[in-house]
Amino acid sequence: MRGARIGTLFAVGALLAGLLGTGGSAAGAGGPLGGTAGGTAGGGRGEALVHLAAGAPENAPENSPENAPGNAVANAVEADGCDTGASLPPKEQVGSRIRAIRERGYLVVGIDQSAYNWGYRDSQTGRIEGFDIDLAHAVAGSVLGDPDKVRLKAVATADRVALLQAPDRPVDMIARAMTITCDRLKQIAFSAPYFNVSQRVVAPKSAHAGTVDQALRGKDVCVAENSSSAAALDQDRHGARKVLTPENQLDCLVLMELGEAQATLSDSSLAYAMVAQDQTMQLVDGSFLPTYMGVGMNKQDTDLVAWVNQVLADWRNSGGWQASYDKWLRPTMGDPGPYRPW
Amino acid sequence: MAAQTQGSVLAPAPAGGPVAVPGGAGPVGRLSGPLARLRRAARTPPGRLRTAAAVLVALTLLFGVTAAWQSADRAAAARQLASRSEPLSQDAAELYRSLADADATAAAGFLMASAEPPEVHAQYQADLDTAARLIPQAAARSGSSAEAQRLLAELGRQLPRYAGLVESARAINREGLPLGGAYLRYASAYLQEEVLPNAQRLADAEAAALDGDYDAAAAVPWAALVLGVLLLGALGRYQVVLFRRTNRVFNPGLLTASAAVLTALVWTAAGTVAAGTGLHGARTQGIAPLRDLNRVRVEALRAHTAEVLDLVSRGATKKFEGEWQALAGTLADPAGGAGSVAGLLAAPPDRARQQLADARHWFEVWQQRHATAGQLGAGSAKDAYEQALGATLTPGRDDTARAAFDAAGQQWEQAARAEQAAFEAAAGGIDGALGVQAAAAGLLAALAVGGTVRGLGRRLAEYR
């Protein structure tokens, strides 16, 4: 009950701050995070809301010059007034959700098992690994004192929001290359951003597509069902002839290899994962709809949201984010600059 | 009907002859031409004899042809049943099973990852080889319907595509990329949604053809039997007439004809009963239990596929758990309803009783182990998934759910072989016996024609 009331308070606070806080108001990296990265000290202590991330995602990440760690810049405020970069201030305080997880003895994290380098099953070892999986282990280590006390549960792209809203909590959180959108913020809570993403098009090199429009116009385009890319394609089809929506973004790569689709629209994170698995594919120049990636949670679990934000801050400050990036993503994505949301 | 009319024409003619001739002579006598001459000739005593001989011979020939033709028809159907439609039906069921097993085995190999032992891939390969052998074999068997040929051609086109998708998945899996899993999903969906429905349609078509052949082989040759009885009656009746007219007790020719027709009639009736008994045995010991067994084996296979795919999905969907629940519910029905393991033992063929009982034991072990694996998966251990996976399938361990499923499957396979042998024992020879019966009916009818001609020829000679 108390948790719910606090949740409401925070939600109201978030709304207010979202409406007001357009001008780099709350560089929360300062106070509560311990600021080893030397973030800009902000006056955000009194606020119910902290912008961990402010990586100028309005620009295409590749083109944005200022990406130094801890660099708090403008927030991403979308047209309808929601702030996709906003979340609760980081805090390690035991609430009802944390207590329930500790009683259970393990953390249940919804993951993807087919997002190469993000959350995927190594088909040789049978183990689930990747950047998002490192994050799941980090949260388990922080909440339960053992990074292995985590149950990884595969969730379908289309089911993510419903699973987080379910009252019996089939999953505590979802770390699955999930894009923070205003639509989703109305239904679930997100952690602070931990990665910058935008929409990218993947197409066979043989298509010789120079621009997004060239790659999509008149083509059979593939997007994962209920993904942010599907929503983006709904708003603007870019002349696509037909839209295929399999359950999983990786199914799009199979369809392209088999010639059933000629292009795929995807988050940049997963677009790179596709190209990494098939050298005959390429990322088409040009990205759009820049936004963030966050950990999804239930709106009522404010203690967990704050806790995860603390883990993210620690992960970032201790170099854990960088280490995981270097291990999983640098070989395919290169310099991390454009992807750091701080 | 024709026989009846002829019989009734035949019977009163000699009896009413002396009365009818004077009364009818006037008006008919005025007519001229060949028809009238024929009628006049038929009214004379030798004419009546000739008419009777012609009618009796025609009736005997009709009986002989009908009996021989109907017996030969049943012999052909029995031969079709034993040599074509039953094997084709079994082949179609086997084809479906090998394809579904390939799917389950490929998924199991995927879950075992690099620990996949060579036997698992060998089993997948054997499944594909079986399918690749059965498709042209079924197509080559003469007499398949156009629909069956179309389905076989379609399956022959689909099989290499499926195999190619699985090989792509394997090659990519060897590099550790998740794309291999996506290929396997695609391959599995392709098999489930496009290939297996064709295999099912083929199995249904072959089962319908089998039923058709069975019904044709077991049909009672009513026309031949009715004709035979009428013919016997006519022969008997005419002998009585001749006896009254000539005071000769026996006409050896007609007596021979009667004996021949009686023999043919009894042979046909007895042969029909014998073939019916044999076919009934083939159905109760072979066709019906095989059909029930095929259904249970396919359901068990689909349940195992759902069990494995549920682990592959790692909880991403409840679909496979639901499929398992539905199939296991039917299979484990204690009341022995259709498609249940208990139902196979309700009235099992003797030859397969032991195998079916053993299979039931392993089926129950499988269900228990699946439940245990489910409890492990839902348990609180942090490696709950790995434990559930290990309890379901681990290469080299024989206490897993898959091992129990395999054991049950092997017993079912042996039971199917025993039932197949029972079918062959019961159905074998039926076509031969019916063939002999057809030939015998023909020969006996010829003998009867000879007897009739000879017997009435003697009487005719008395008028010269």
UniProtKB/TrEMBL annotation, chain A:
Signal sequence region: 1-26
In the UniProt record, does the keyword Glycosyltransferase occur?
Answer: no
Q: Which UniProt keywords apply?
A: Signal, Transport
Signal keyword on record: yes
Where in the numbering of this chain does the Solute-binding protein family 3/N-terminal domain appear? 106-332
- A family per Pfam: SBP_bac_3
| Gene3D superfamilies per UniProt | Periplasmic binding protein-like II
Q: InterPro entries, per this entry?
A: Bact_solute-bind_prot3 (IPR051455), Solute-binding_3/MltF_N (IPR001638)
Concerning its family, UniProt says: Belongs to the bacterial solute-binding protein 3 family.
What is the name attached to this protein's record? Solute-binding protein family 3/N-terminal domain-containing protein
What is the organism of origin for this protein?
Kitasatospora saccharophila
Automatic annotation (TrEMBL), chain B:
Record field: compositional bias (Low complexity): 11-22
Ordered alphabetically, the record's keywords are: Membrane, Transmembrane, Transmembrane helix
Superkingdom of source: Bacteria
Q: Does the keyword Membrane apply?
A: yes
Region (Disordered), start-end ranges: 1-26
The transmembrane segments are: 49-69, 219-238, 250-270
Q: What is this protein called in UniProt?
A: Secreted protein
Organism (species): Kitasatospora saccharophila
Q: What is the lineage of its organism?
A: Bacteria, Bacillati, Actinomycetota, Actinomycetes, Kitasatosporales
